[in-house]
Amino acid sequence: MRARLVERARQGDESAFTELIDLEGDRCFAIAYRILRDVERAQDAVQHALLLAWREIPRLRDPERFEIWLHRLLVNACYEEARRYRRWSLRVRELPVDGLSAPDPTVSVDDRDVLERAFLQLSPEHRAVFVLHHHVGLPLATIAEVAGVPIGTVKSRLHHATRNLRAAVMADEPEATEARPA
Asked: Model confidence over 31-41: pLDDT tens digits?
């Protein structure tokens, strides 16, 4: 069914393209958000990728490869957004601690904040590979195709992203900072 929609869209059928976007739009936004970590930038990247997809879909040779092709456009749009806005803002709000007697419900929020800060330290290229592998579940060969780089580069980026995330999370833990000599 998807291949037929792609064929119709390639012929200029706007309703077929709209159906394709209805099928892929949420996933595209999720990928863009995980790479860029900002709702507005993710929306801009998705919009840019979808406009480019509409313009370029007549040139798509293999309708079966639409999803990979669209993801490649999206990842490139995310890279462009990241380059356009080099400065990342850290929007973490401190939560007041009132000496709760029950287990602290903000622990999961703290964990998410630590992960967010660690993730923001990665380059967009490293984030893209990490997101496509761990969140989307794409195999490394497909990620290489989507990112337009050799598979060895994908493996390297995934390794460095994982290592850097682990190091950043460990460095952000209170025990790690208290144990360091001054």
From this structure: 999 999 899 99
